[in-house]
């Protein structure tokens, strides 16, 4: 009886270890070179942030999450997005960027097109007309910026990281353009 309990515990531990390995492969993949097919991400309510500002500071790390999911800017104003990479993984495995797109553009479609746009730092040229602003890729401990003029029309404009697999992992948010008072 004791021998059977030991075998059961050992089998149970092996099953958990195997499940952990499979989960790790599903979450992180075997390499950063090829995107994995994924279903559309679940959109969560944005985190609250401070009032409108011409310098929009945001960061992202190795957890594939932006620290803010909502950025606010006044319509038609000059603004700057400043993206800081707080992680430690090398840039070829865990680079980040921000691509702000028109409100009616589907971020999933942009992310899928970006996966094959390695030569343009994963910014898909076929969406050039729908892209409002984008940063270059940034690696650990670095900051990139992009200056742009916010759209004149108030509304919610999606932003996302287009490095392969990051949008599918949840790296997205909203640039909220508000009317000038």
Distance between the termini: 78 Å
Corresponding CATH superfamily of the largest domain:
Cupredoxins -  blue copper proteins
Q: Count of helices?
A: 3
> Which consecutive residue ranges, at least 5 long each, have pLDDT under 50?
1-52
How helical, in percent, are the residues? 10-25%
Indicate the radius of gyration in whole angstroms: 20 Å
Q: Kindly state the mean pLDDT as a whole number? A: 79
- Profile the largest sheet: 5 strands, mixed
Element-by-element helix/strand order: HEEEHEHEEEE
Strand content of the residues, in percent? 25-35%
**In one word, what is the shape?**
globular
CATH architecture assignment of the largest domain: Sandwich
Q: What is the CATH C level class of the largest domain, in words?
A: Mainly Beta
Spatial strand order of the main sheet: 2-8-7-4-5
Q: How is the CATH topology of the largest domain named?
A: Immunoglobulin-like
What count of domains describes the coordinates?
Answer: 2
How many runs of DSSP E, i.e. beta strands?
A: 8
> What structural category arises from helix and sheet content?
alpha/beta
Please give the structural blueprint.
Layout: H1 2-28, E1 55-60, E2 70-74, E3 78-85, H2 91-94, E4 99-101, H3 107-114, E5 131-134, E6 143-149, E7 155-160, E8 172-178
Parallel strand pairs: 1-3, 2-8
Antiparallel strand pairs: 3-6, 4-5, 4-7, 7-8
Task: Offer a few descriptive terms.
single chain, 181 residues, alpha/beta, Immunoglobulin-like, 3-stranded mixed sheet, 3 helices, Cupredoxin
Q: Could you explain how this protein is built, in words?
A:
With 181 residues, the protein is an alpha/beta fold. It has two domains: 1-30; 55-178, Cupredoxins -  blue copper proteins (Immunoglobulin-like, Sandwich), CATH 2.60.40.420. It is 22% helix and 25% strand. It has three helices and eight strands, in the order αβββαβαββββ. The chain has helices at 2-28, 91-94, 107-114, and strands at 55-60, 70-74, 78-85, 99-101, 131-134, 143-149, 155-160, 172-178. The chain has a five-stranded mixed β-sheet, with no helix packed on it. Strands 1-3-6 form a three-stranded mixed β-sheet, with no helix packed on it. The longest helix is centred in the N-terminal third of the chain and has 27 residues, at 2-28. Residues 1-52 have low confidence and may be disordered. GO terms for molecular function: copper ion binding; electron transfer activity. This is Plastocyanin/azurin family copper-binding protein. Keywords: Copper, Electron transport, Metal-binding, Transport. InterPro entries: BlueCu_1, BlueCu_1_BS, Cu-binding_ET, Cu_oxidase_CS, Cupredoxin. It comes from Rubellicoccus peritrichatus.
């Amino acid at each position: 009886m004791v021998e059977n309990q030991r075998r059961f515990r050992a089998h149970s531990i092996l099953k958990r270890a195997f499940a952990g390995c499979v989960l790790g492969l599903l979450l992180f993949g075997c390499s950063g070179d090829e995107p994995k097919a994924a279903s559309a991400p679940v959109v969560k309510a944005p985190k609250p942030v401070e009032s409108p500002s011409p310098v929009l500071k945001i960061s992202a790390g190795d957890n594939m999450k932006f620290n803010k999911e909502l950025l606010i800017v006044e319509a038609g104003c000059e603004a700057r997005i400043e993206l800081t990479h707080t992680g430690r993984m090398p840039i070829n495995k865990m680079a980040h960027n921000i691509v702000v797109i028109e409100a009616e553009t589907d971020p999933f479609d942009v992310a899928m097109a970006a996966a094959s746009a390695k030569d343009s730092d994963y910014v898909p040229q076929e969406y050039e007309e729908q892209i409002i602003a984008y940063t270059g890729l940034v690696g650990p401990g670095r900051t990139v910026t992009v200056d742009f003029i916010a759209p004149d029309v108030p509304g919610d404009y999606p932003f996302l990281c287009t490095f392969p697999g990051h949008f599918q992992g949840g790296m997205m948010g909203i640039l909220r353009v508000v009317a000038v008072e």
